[in-house]
Amino acid sequence: MSDYTISLVPKVSRYAVDEVVVNDILKWFVSKDIVKAELSDCTLGNSGYAISDGA
Questions:
Q1: Mind listing the pLDDT tens digit of every residue in the chain (55 residues)?
Q2: Structure letter (DSSP) for residue 12
Q3: Cα Dmax for the chain
Q4: C-alpha R_g of the chain
Q5: 3-class SS at 36?
Q6: Which residues are within 8 A (CB) of 20 and not within 5 positions of it... i.e. 6 or more apart?
Q7: CA trace torsion 12, 30, 50, 52 (10° rounding)
Q8: Alpha-carbon distance 3 to 25, whole Å?
Q9: In this structure, are residues 55 and 33 in contact, taking their beta carbons and an 8 Å threshold?
């Protein structure tokens, strides 16, 4: 585990349903083996998605 984190957030949201966009981006990250599909406690106290081996 590391002592830093990277968060990806949109600058300007243009989507009516943000959760749909977030899920689409997460599916893309998982399909490219960038993040793992399961939530973990890798973000020092909050749930998040761990970096995968392909990142």
A1: 567 777 776 666 666 677 788 888 899 999 999 999 998 876 666 788 888 898 8
A2: S
A3: 35
A4: 12
A5: strand
A6: none
A7: -130
A8: 25
A9: yes
